[in-house]
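Please, structure for the following, as tokens.
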Amino acid sequence: MRNPNGYGTVAKLSGHRRRPFIVKKVARWKDNGQPVYSVIGYAETREAGNMLLAEYNRDPWDVDRAKLTLQQLFDLWKEKKAPKLGESNRSSLCSAFKHCSALAEKPYKQIKSFHMQDTIDGCGKGYSTQAAIKNLWGHLDRFALELDIITRCYSELLTSDPIPETSRQRFSDDEIAKLWEHQAEPWVDTVLIFIYSGWRISELLALTPADVDLQAGTMTGGTKTKAGKNRIVPIHSKIRPLIETRLAEGGPRLICNDGRAMCQATYRNYWTEVMTRLGMGHVPHECRHTFESLLDSAGANRKCIDLLMGHVSKDTGNRVYNHKTIEELRLNIELITR
């Protein structure tokens, strides 16, 4: 059956091709009456070509944008959108793209939810990588929607393995008391500084003497997220003597090893020695869990806890309108009396 005028056509190309049927529509007419076609796409069968043509006529899309491949869209997204994200998030999303590379040359318009789901199910990685791939598809879908390449976000249908229950355990009150009993032993002071400040291991090891203001009673540092960077943590009165002793060493960092800055791997070796010596089985990150747990149990303000931890408040009102002073942070951190 002949298609209506202006509807478009599906024609078979010569030669051996993977997708031999061209789907096209008249874009304009030459002065001599000859048509100039815009190519909508290519199909493996005439039936698939007619379906593509029907879809286009139901929802006409920009032909040039319709040709934009996943790789081209991703490159454009990296240029336009990625710089606005945090460094850690941006790095995670860019790493996730390698698991989508099999679709790199496929026009984004033609990528459906089952294609996206296959990249998650077939990545062979755990929940964190699966979540990063799912997150990437969400970013690309929203960008494609903004560019009028697609009309719906198939990424909303995607699933990934759930986050497993955490195996992290906080230091018990008895363990904290034991640490204080052994505070004079090598490296035990750093465990206590961790517990009463909530720094990540990378953040604590990066602190310099200039980041510690004894007069104001604060430490300033932080990495990873926008909310976590350059955050101010008041020095809890219990660990102030430990901080002062470390500063008196005169090294380039607050926590030094024989007067030199050290990497995480070296510190973890000392950490293991402390845990073995005191009969404990914790990892450094569990100090953050302990710090947050102690604050929560002491009745600290939720916004203050988020600020001290470097977390983005989940409550919009708190996140936008609630500005806590350093003194309020200090009052909340001093609620920890154990």
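Confidence is low (pLDDT under 50) at residues 315-323. The longest strand covers residues 21-29.
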